[in-house]
Amino acid sequence: MKIKPILLVAGEPKSVFIEIFFKSIKNIKYKSPLILICSKRELKNQIKKFKFNKKIRILDKNNIKNLKINNKKINLIDVSYEVSNNRKLNIKLKNEYINNCFNIAFRIIKSGYTHKFINGPINKKTFLNKKFLGITEYVASKFDIKETGMLIYNNEISVCPLTTHLPLKLVPKKITKKLIENKIKMINDFFKKKLKLIPMIGVTGLNPHCESINKFNEDEKIVAPAIKSSIKKKIKVKGPFSADTIFLKTNRNKFNVILGMYHDQVLAPLKTLFEYNAINITMGLPFFRVSPDHGPNEKMFGKNKSNPKSLIQALKFLDKK
């Protein structure tokens, strides 16, 4: 069977992605051909800075199916990146560039050429401009997918936030029995179909100790009934559990995935446990979309001090798919 290539959109032009890309491909072995989508000029600038000696092969984005590619060179789809005359960051031009990179990748995926995609970190504040909660939702919109799930994946334990980049005061209004049921089913289906594993899912409560001083307790009225109905559907799920103890070693070892009610409730403990040894996977898409589990970190741009571990894990993960 022919090995499908991995598409990589570099993301922010002034991020650490190219640096960690160089470090990643230098330190791991992989079979999948890699196709990088970014500005040739920006790439060459960093090749020169980091003294990276691999040559570039320019690909025709309109004729990619007929090209024989390998990893002896960097397979590059060059995307023009116009900058302002004074060389200062122009948000509009930068966003157009990133959007163009994504659109090329999406067009290639829709053609059936590959099902493996990595995007580098994006500055959500400047790129999304409040139109989407995160890149997960942005990617889903390009494929008319209404509901997705963010899975921060590690071999030992993975987490999924029920709500993603939502202000904390809005979280209780978003939580519904149907949303929890759908997310539990999505996790179960993804692990069974994509990872060939029947997962044990743990679910946290919303409130401290799953208790509330208010008359209406979401954990009793919403979370627990959603878990009960999922169990009736033969899904292996338990909860709700208090979020402050579920990540203790003896507790987390019982689960493959922990579904939390909001972003930091589950991402903070996972990143404390594994730091960069995790990847961000979008569930619910008709292809694998993975990204390193960290931001662009523009302040570290060009300093050659960034940790490539998350991108290495992303490449290893997709190389097997």
3D architecture notes:
It is a single chain. The chain has 2 domains: 1-145 and 285-321, Isopropylmalate Dehydrogenase; 150-284, Isopropylmalate Dehydrogenase (3-Layer(aba) Sandwich), CATH 3.40.718. The N and C termini lie close together (12 Å). 37% of the residues lie in helices and 17% in strands. Helix 1 crosses helix 11 (309-319) and helix 7 packs across helix 8. The protein has 321 residues and is of the alpha/beta class. It contains 11 helices and 12 strands. A hairpin with a 4-residue loop joins strand 11 (279-283) and strand 12 (288-292). An 8-stranded mixed beta sheet has the order 3-4-2-1-5-12-11-6. Strands 7-10-8-9 form a 4-stranded parallel beta sheet, with helices on both faces.
Topology record:
Elements: E1 6-9, H1 17-27, E2 34-38, H2 40-50, E3 56-58, E4 74-78, H3 91-110, E5 116-119, H4 124-127, H5 135-142, E6 149-153, E7 158-161, H6 171-174, H7 177-194, E8 201-204, H8 218-232, E9 237-241, H9 249-252, E10 257-260, H10 263-274, E11 279-283, E12 288-292, H11 309-319
Parallel strand pairs: 1-2, 1-5, 2-4, 3-4, 5-12, 7-10, 8-9, 8-10
Antiparallel strand pairs: 6-11, 11-12
Helix pairs in contact: 1-11, 7-8
